Amino acid sequence: MVRKMKVLLVGDGARENVLAYSLARSSKGYKIYALSSYINPGINSIVKTTGAEYFIGNVNSPEVIKEVIKKVNPDLGVIGPEDPLFNGIADIFRKEGISVFGASKKCARIEESKAWARELMWKHSIPGRLRYKVFYTIEDTAKFILEYGGSVAIKPAGQAGGKGVKVIADLEAYLTHDKREALTKSVNEIGSLYNKEGEPRIIIEEKVDGPEYTLHVLSDGKTTISLPLAQDYKNAYQDGIGPETGGMGSISGPNELLPFISNEEYQTTYDIVKRTMDAIYKETGERYVGVIAGQMMLTELWGPTVIEYYSRFGDPEASAIIPRLESDFGETIELTATGHLNKASIKINEKPSIVRAVATLGYPISKQMASGHKIVVDLEKMKERGCVVFFGSVALEGMQLITKGSRALEIVAIGDFEEAAENLDRCMQYISSDTKLIYRTDIGRTVKSQIEKAEIIRYSYKNREKRGILGVSADWSPNGGLW
Questions:
Q1: Which fold has domain 131-206?
Q2: Which CATH code fits 212-438?
Q3: Cα angle vertex 393, ends 405, 85, to 5°?
Q4: 258-271 pLDDT, tens per residue?
Q5: pLDDT tens digits, one per residue of 378-387
């Protein structure tokens, strides 16, 4: 009897449920163990089906990881979230002689530090870079905002779960003193989201505008493979209003593109991400192994422009991309981790997908209000309707599903955008809770407006390219210069 390969999956959200789903569907017949901070119902079902074991513990703790590795003796590790990568969990697997799908601590810095990522892009002349300034104190940031009149984006200088970004569009020559005074009140909030000793707390970048999209690239340190594009919908409420979240939904397709991104822009983006991996190697001496993503925007300044990087799969982008892969993606994960990605092939369902995230009332403002609610899902009925469910911030407690305060579910439908959106609409009747559910129905239904916006931007950046001024911009400030 052939021994099944043992995989230890680290993480507890919908992204990890998707990774478990792809491993479980593989022809390799993996035995899938998991380590999470709570029992994710979707991951738990897969663990049980493969005859493995579920461990509960701190996914960021080296001691906990070592203990679970000792018990499982896995052949392969798969790390889903960013925080374990930042804490060097992938390095622990490698020190134990275990192949792992996940960036090393040094390589994951491309996501952990937005300041380091910007410095890297400028040092290595990577296209799509924005000008920026970093600040170590809230006081210096506030002083800069008071003195400078212009359009900027203010962000935590390090990873903060996609939160805390404030964009200031100054359509006049200068902001009035009162407006600038008001803007400094946001700085305290942003500064509180990232405060690592010796690191910048806040980064201010030049503001750009355009459709956003994400390209994920697999790398085994030698070979790279690009995956289909996806677009994340970050704002909490309908029509893109409300506070930013980790993502209320996503779209991918058709084929490897999005309707508003050309093949040339796709290839340019792929080149940017590959050049970034080369730069990471030059700076750290370590080859990138796992998945890296460019969170991009199509802008008049550069065309494809880097907003930030991920050192892991985006969430909910993973739920939009992975179910569209008709090839054995579980095996591709293994080939990536073991240095044999050149043997992999990616086959894509040409039809697009839509992901709709579902949370409970209170999200994203009050995690406490959104926590502790019962949620009921009729998986069989949803499957009959053509929808796949991935479980996120919801725990299996006894025989009940209890929300944990973030996005509880990600519902996926594949088909033409309108068809997929209608399937999702029908599937919502099979979800109930003891409180109000929060979700967006416009995801996948705004493609036409984004195509029109992209065409205008494309005309502008192509003209800049012909004139040899791609990436060149001028700005003004009271003291004669910004950057």
A1: Dna Ligase; domain 1 (3.30.1490)
A2: 3.30.470.20
A3: 110
A4: 999 999 999 999 99
A5: 999 999 999 9
